[in-house]
Amino acid sequence: MGMSNLLKRLQDKTFISIPEFLSSHPVSGERIDYINQMVEDKSYPYKENPKLKSLFLEIKQ
Predict the structure, then answer these.
(1) What per-residue confidence (pLDDT) applies to 50?
(2) Based on C-alpha coordinates, what's the Rg of the chain?
(3) How many independent structural domains does the chain possess?
(4) With CB atoms 3.0 to 4.6 Å apart as the test, which of 5, 26, 27, 39 could cross-link to 11 if both were Cys?
(5) What is the structure's pLDDT at 21?
């Protein structure tokens, strides 16, 4: 679960300097739980976005 993993990594601020726009929206366990529940329920439309996937892989490195 990419989004959930990203939020968990952002929650652990030791791995990277958090950009200012993210610091105004801190990651919480509640946000992570919400994302996980959405994935389980499949309550959102999904369409793969190649550009977004490329950006995510760039961030992941």
Answers:
(1) 92
(2) 13
(3) 1
(4) 27
(5) 61
What letter represents residue 55's amino acid? L
Q: Provide the domain limits for residue 56.
A: 2-60
Q: Rounded to whole angstroms, how far apart are CA atoms 27 and 25?
A: 7
Burial class (CB in 10 A: 0-12, 13-18, 19+), 39: middle
In sequence order, the 6+-apart residues with CB closer than 8 A to the CB of 1 are 35, 36, 39
Which portions of the chain are predicted below pLDDT 50? none
Question: Could you identify the residue written with the tokens 């309550």?
Answer: 43
pTM assigned to the model: 0.39
Q: Could you give the angle at the alpha carbon of 59 between the alpha carbons of 20 and 27, nearest 5°?
A: 45
Check: CB of residue 4 under 8 Å from CB of residue 30.
Answer: no
